[in-house]
UniProtKB/TrEMBL annotation:
Its cofactor is Zn(2+). One of its GO terms (biological process) is DNA replication. SMART domains: DnaJ. GO terms for cellular component: cytoplasm. A zinc finger (CR-type) spans 137-215. It comes from Corallococcus sicarius. Binds 2 Zn(2+) ions per monomer. Keywords: Chaperone, Cytoplasm, DNA replication, Metal-binding, Repeat, Stress response, Zinc, Zinc-finger. Participates actively in the response to hyperosmotic and heat shock by preventing the aggregation of stress-denatured proteins and by disaggregating proteins, also in an autonomous, DnaK-independent fashion. Unfolded proteins bind initially to DnaJ; upon interaction with the DnaJ-bound protein, DnaK hydrolyzes its bound ATP, resulting in the formation of a stable complex. GrpE releases ADP from DnaK; ATP binding to DnaK triggers the release of the substrate protein, thus completing the reaction cycle. This is Chaperone protein DnaJ.
Length: 374
């Protein structure tokens, strides 16, 4: 028998919330209490089961705006649970948990029929391409291990072509319900794999799956401007669906190989170019590698090591756009490591004529030395 109305605890107190609680916070509070006292977490604990029932009853009332309004005005008298002798009658626990928890405890399908066909699985493929291919795009051909429809049964899974029959084990729902105490949970039916149907005369070639192992060569269109981790979706190129269902998709993840000269930041390209001491001092025109081939770049007279020059429009093309980034060229002045006697003589004469201490940077350095050591 149900407890008398006067003995019931306040529904808001049961869920640990205030009367002004929002619908979303009410749902969160019920979830917390329900997880704490759920029978699966407290097997054989009658007190936990009672608290779980109490919380479910409280949420059933307070989550319904009309019933909540009556409860706020009249208390338990406005929502007489258990008056017919059931103690928990009127509470659709499966509906509650279907809304709050989804499939956490196996779902609550309640006899809903499932489709006899299902969409095929999506496939993933990692594709390695060069720096240039990522910049300008490419159309490589790849071999995908991709099951195909059985040509014997045309994907139906049936030897005779007969339509699948309703599964006798689950009655076509695709689920089997199990009861633990008062609480019922559902699991996919093992006999039909959750489809709700079985094939009485399965195809010998595919064993009723409607699919057979296969490999397929596919041309993948990679657009210019992709970068590491870019995913390209090929709709309908995944696994075929079960028993004639629609196919899944193929997702190609791009992996870009490192380049020996170039580095990339979004659509900008960076590289370093060595120049000789005389080229930097006197100025010169040098060949600079770019994604489009070599181009001439002017090195002004007196260029210092580390100077960065910009080549506009020589970077990475923007994805799905006509725009291009720029290339940034950092000049590195090379110091010769081995000198001939003639070269050494000329450099010594140069140092003598120019005077080491007259160089602006050198002068500053020696001035600091004099200040420190007198």
């Amino acid at each position: 028998m149900a407890a008398a109305t006067g003995q019931k605890r306040d529904y808001y107190e049961v869920l640990g919330v205030q009367k002004t609680v929002s619908a979303q916070d009410l749902k969160s509070a019920f979830r917390k209490v329900a997880l704490q006292y759920h029978p699966d977490r407290n097997p054989g604990n009658a007190e936990a089961e009672d608290k779980f029932k109490e919380a479910s009853e409280a949420y059933e009332v307070l989550s319904d705006p009309e019933r909540r309004q009556k409860y706020d005005r009249f208390g338990h008298a406005g929502n007489p649970f258990g008056d017919a002798g059931g103690g928990f009658q009127g509470v659709n626990i499966n509906d509650i948990f279907g809304e709050i928890f989804g499939d956490i405890f196996g779902g609550a399908g309640g006899g809903r029929g499932r489709r006899q066909t299902s969409r095929g699985a999506d496939l993933r493929y990692n594709l390695e391409i060069s720096f240039e291919e990522a910049a300008f795009g490419c159309r490589p051909k790849v071999t995908i291990p991709r099951p195909k429809k059985c040509d014997t049964c045309t994907g139906s899974g049936s030897k005779s072509g007969a339509a699948p029959r309703q599964c006798a084990a689950c009655g076509g729902s695709g689920e089997l319900r199990y009861t633990q105490g008062f609480f019922a949970v559902s699991r996919p039916c093992a006999d039909c794999g959750g489809t709700g149907a079985t094939i009485p005369d399965p195809c010998a070639k595919c064993r009723g799956s409607g699919k057979i192992p296969s490999e397929e060569v596919i041309e993948v269109a990679i657009p210019g401007g992709v970068d590491n981790g870019t995913r390209v979706r090929l709709g309908g190129m995944g696994e075929p669906g079960d028993r004639g269902g629609p196919p899944g998709d193929l997702y190609v993840t791009v992996i870009v190989r490192e380049h020996p000269l170039f580095q990339r930041e979004e659509y900008e390209v960076f590289c370093e170019v060595p120049v000789s001491f005389t080229q930097a001092a006197l100025g010169a025109k040098i060949d600079v590698p770019t994604l489009d081939g070599k181009v001439k770049m002017t090195i002004p007279q007196g260029t210092q090591s580390g100077k960065v020059f910009r080549l506009r429009g020589k970077g990475i093309p923007h994805l799905h756009s006509q725009q291009r980034g720029d290339q940034h060229v950092r000049v590195i002045i090379e110091t010769p490591t081995e000198l001939s006697s003639k070269q050494r003589e000329l450099l010594e004469r140069f140092a003598e004529v120019s005077g080491e201490e007259t160089h602006p940077q050198s002068k500053t350095f020696f001035d600091k030395v004099k200040e420190l050591f007198g």
